[in-house]
Design brief:
Elements: E1 9-13, E2 17-21, H1 25-32, H2 37-46, E3 49-53, E4 56-60, H3 63-81, H4 90-97, H5 109-112, E5 122-123, E6 128-129, H6 134-145, E7 148-152, H7 159-172, E8 178-183, H8 199-217, H9 220-228, E9 232-236, E10 248-252, H10 260-267, E11 275-280, H11 294-302, E12 308-312, H12 322-334
Parallel strand pairs: 7-11, 7-12, 8-9, 8-10, 10-11
Antiparallel strand pairs: 1-2, 2-4, 3-4, 5-6
Helix pairs in contact: 1-3, 3-4, 6-7, 7-8, 10-11
């Protein structure tokens, strides 16, 4: 295996049991987790048994599952060797990266190398962000390599979160001068009626998910200052008309609720030195009946245009609570719109 192969040796191997030597016992303790909780998670996910004996792990089960468990264990150990901690969600992310999403077989090692020296990492002022699925990794690469990217898929797949993380990273590094975050101000199946306050008070409830993402990446005082200085702007889609957005990172969230005219207006705001990301879930359109979603139309018209990246997520890429993926799959199976936002 490409990951740290010089340090990990299979001492014995057949189709029911493999013993693997991990040379650094301190790292092995971190790999196993408190009360071996990490090993238990891998056992449950892959239907294998893992027993620790000194600095060795004995893995028992089906050949294919043993192979996948070894790939995951090695990737996580390589992550620890590179000085990167194992945090909540890293085990499930490694399991997701190690499984082929169509056939259930082991992915090429390059997917799992993201956990070791080949890790993809977005650095912001408050935290670093890493992909937790192969599609998230491809999405991040598309965000870095293209001026216009569409992120399409169900709730909880990190479409907006990762786009905002890349935007903040580019702003901190000086690669763009400002961030523009926008959403259509469309109510999700409810009539909220009159909202008190000035214009900001009226639109902020629609923009709150964008504020939530920014708060994850920037200290509160710095975020407030950047908003005051207009280095970060959060505004409804209708406010984009007539603007040319140069040297900016622009994100349109919940784009399935943009009309055809609004979508064309937004896409033509792209100016020199800018990056634009459009995210949405085409199964959750809240537009009035008979009004075509601009996102659905844009995907059909622009899918073959050179220089535009498309990232398409599925329920397998959901990185919220595991129940969210099961809910989405249940709704998909019933032929009904997805739940959640």
């Amino acid at each position: 295996m490409a990951i740290d192969a010089q340090h990990l040796t299979d001492l014995s191997q057949d189709c029911t049991e493999t013993v693997v030597d991990f040379p650094d016992n301190r790292l092995l303790i971190d790999l196993c987790g408190e009360f071996d909780t990490n090993l238990a998670q891998i056992e449950q996910a892959l239907d294998v048994q893992i027993h620790r004996r000194g600095n060795k792990l004995q893995v028992s089960g089906d050949c294919a599952q043993i192979s996948q468990a070894l790939a995951v264990l090695r990737a996580l150990y390589a992550r620890l060797e590179s000085g990167r901690p194992l945090e909540a969600g890293d085990i499930s992310a490694a399991l997701r990266l190690g499984k082929d999403e169509t056939s259930g077989t082991t992915h090429p090692d390059s997917q799992l190398e993201m956990f070791g020296s080949g890790a993809i990492e977005i650095k912001t002022r408050k935290k670093s962000v890493e992909p937790r699925s192969a599609r998230q990794a491809a999405y991040i690469r598309a965000l870095l390599d293209n001026d216009l990217v569409f992120g399409l898929g169900p709730a909880g797949t990190g479409k907006t979160y990762l786009a905002v993380a890349v935007a903040v990273s580019m702003l901190v590094e000086g690669r763009v001068d400002r961030i523009m975050l926008s959403r259509p101000a469309v109510e999700a199946g409810e009539r909220l009626g009159f909202l008190p306050g000035d214009m900001k008070d009226k639109v902020d409830p629609y923009m709150q998910p964008l504020y939530d993402a920014l708060n994850d990446f920037l200290p509160a005082r710095q975020l407030a200052r950047m908003i005051d200085e207009k280095k970060i702007e959060i505004a409804p889609l209708a406010f984009m008309r007539g603007r040319t957005l140069s040297h900016a990172f622009v994100v349109l969230d919940e784009a399935q609720n943009a009309t055809s005219m609004q979508m064309k207006m937004f896409l033509t705001r792209l100016g020199e030195g800018s990056h634009m990301v459009v995210t949405g879930d085409m199964s959750q359109v809240d537009l009035p009946r008979g009004v075509l979603s601009g996102l659905i139309e844009a995907e059909r018209i622009l899918r073959r245009v050179e220089g535009i990246g498309f990232a398409r997520f599925t329920s397998r890429d959901v990185v919220r609570h595991p129940m969210v993926a099961r809910i989405i799959e249940a709704y998909d199976g019933a032929g009904k719109p997805d739940a959640g936002t």
